[in-house]
Amino acid sequence: MAEPGTLPRLLLRNARDLRERPAMREKDRGIWQTFTWGQYCEHVRDFALGLAALGFGRGERLSVIGDNRPRLYWAQVAGQCLGGVSVPVYQDSIAKELAYVWNHSDVAVIVAEDQEQVDKVLTLRAELPALRLVVYDDPRGMLHYRYDWLKSFQEVQELGRKFGGQHPGRLEAEIETGRPEDDAFICYTSGTTGTPKGAIISHGNALETARMAVAAEDFRTEDDYLAYLPMAWIGDAFYTLILSLYVGFACNCPESPETVQRDLRELGPTLLLAPPRIWENMLTAVLVRAADASPLKRRVFEVFRRAAERAEILRSDGKPVPLGLRLACTLGGVLVYTPIRDQLGLRRTRWALTGGAPLGPDTFRFFRSIGVNLKQVYGITETTGLVSLQPSPEANPTTAGRPCPGIDVRIAERGEVLVRGGGVFKGYLKNDEATREVIDPEGWFHTGDAGFIDPRGHLVIIDRAKDVGALADGTPFAPQFIENKLKFSPYVREAVAFGDGKPFVAAMIAIDLGTVGNWAERRGIPYTSYMDLSQKAEVRALIGEEIRKGNETLPESTQVSRFLLLTKDLDADDAEVTRTRKVRRRHVAEKYAAVTDAFYGGRDEVELATTITYEDGRQATLRSRVRIEDVQGVRVHG
Fold this sequence. Notes:
By secondary structure, the chain is an alpha/beta fold. A hairpin with a 2-residue loop joins β1 (22-28) and β2 (31-36).
């Protein structure tokens, strides 16, 4: 039997072959509720027929907004059953960002999680001429909302059941009409260098990428996957919708973003994908707990942590681990490593992936050393989220793995990574010029990332090609590499490194409010706010020492010489980072031009005028004088 060519056909296959197996779980009010593949299909069928009854048709766009909820995933597949296109958006986007995406993609239907998200649509309703229908999942707080164009998820499903009775075979006929070349998703890029672009991903792109993933990694029908990442991120679309439908494993939706860590411990997934920030947060939590432990426990933790990391470095270099070190690691597994994995919810995890941005080598080695099979994966929106993946025996913090079977990778003359394969997107919505700029006549997609292929055949990503530069003396300068070194510290949440064309490297640091706050409280240092805490002399000394430690792992020429502590965290609402926490370097460089002038002008302080953007678009400005510190032991050149 031929393999299904669209996502809805995969759903029909799963409902037939895996009917009683778990497909999705949702935690609601503290209780996990399970939906089988048969139930998944029935929910999608009823909602799709309801959309058909309300006039939704082939080629139209359906958007979802909210936290990870089964009904929001079912709505996307339901729209695709009718030949529609899914347009997921970030649930924490401000009004301006939502209006742009929904207008640019001519969204006809929006499926919102709850009252909060419906209210966002209400404020923008007059700006969305193509919008005909808004559907909400959670009815709490919605009793007095009365609009002809607003319906509950249950209402649409009831309408679908009636419509299906009057039009037998309608949905099957619509699904049969679908072709691999039909659009399945419009996923908007993170917009690190400008306005987000809508990448059109076809059913063929989706299924070809799934085939490549299955050829490169061991996915199983009985696997459990935690669906907690933003639905607008291509990583969530690929693993939670595409791969789950292709392989048949179960996806689990946590109760809320605030309960993810607790739900992760309860579930103990066998598969996990997390961006670097999540792994860094997990490590920070472990280090903070260790720091708060008794002297004996702290000593035991440090001894076995160092033993595990020495063993991991030897293994990754292909060298034998001495007997004494193996015995120490065995004992460490009982006393330290297994309890940590239990606390983090990673005891059952067969393998875990990190992607979206480079992960610091120290963080990477820590998790592998305690028995988590953590591996790096590389992919971007335009490649349906996958290009390369590390085989388990070859996991290494310095590479992004081997290109998956069926994906061709080439390095251009200036070091840019080029990709060609069935997963490369169709093009950018309403932007043929941008499409021609990134897909050349031979079909190679220009990723914009700088990298190379190492002797083992692994792809190594250095940084965004546009961000790689050189210091004034010609020393290569890759800001992301330096920032990752700084962010290994549990006290550093974000870092932005400067140095291109300059005589030395300087950095702006955003402290981690939780860990620095705990540190200050243990030492009796009072503070009133993030701004107040970040400007304490004791905190500047703490971060200076953390930077000095990070410098020890950097070449002397690229060590951080000067730094400044920001009075607020970098925020996506202020366009300083993307929704996936990637630095918008061009905007940050313009916004903090006074800081760079002070860094390289030899000044000891600078006046910061920081603009803060609220969810409704209102703005406020914070003004403060901030000290610039020199890092001990580093000579400032120039």
